[in-house]
Amino acid sequence: MSRAVPVFWVFVFNILLLAGMVEANHLLAPFGVSLHLHALFILFAGLYLRVLHGALLAIVIGGMLDAIDTPGFGPLLFLMTALWTATVYLRLRIRREVLFQIRMSALGLQAAFLLAATAAFGGGSFGVAAFWQRLAVDAVLSLALVTLLGPVWVHLQIRLLESFRWDIASERPDG
Known about the structure:
With 175 residues, the protein is an all-alpha fold. It has one domain (4-170). Helices cover 73% and strands 0% of the residues. The chain contains six helices and no strands. It has helices spanning 4-28, 38-47, 51-69, 75-90, 99-121, 129-163. The radius of gyration is 16 Å and the shape is globular. The two termini are 20 Å apart.
């Protein structure tokens, strides 16, 4: 079976995660809270997929996030691709079989995403206390969920690919 078929199903899983995140944000909107699970979109692609497949997944998901979240096209595409690149660079140093390291990778990716998104989209709101309060609530909620869900999400995608007889041991972390 072609390697593209299992990667397509990883893409479908990411679409389902995106739909779930959008729905959760819709339900949380009356409370003034937003849920950001952006690290989960690139965690598996950066740690487990080959460079070409991971790059394509990061670019497509970044473009879809741009279509949903930002007023213009490009900032989230660039940010997701940059975070994926950092993950690919760090994956030689991360032991993928250790859950703690997957959790910390997810936490670090999400923190980097929130910092970069705040710097890019915060604009004139930096002097407003309500902006920082909302950012703190969003960050705590998002970081906690990404830290808890990171290993589960990775394991779910590994099981999906194993159902297509994908051998994780055959993947080279360098490319």
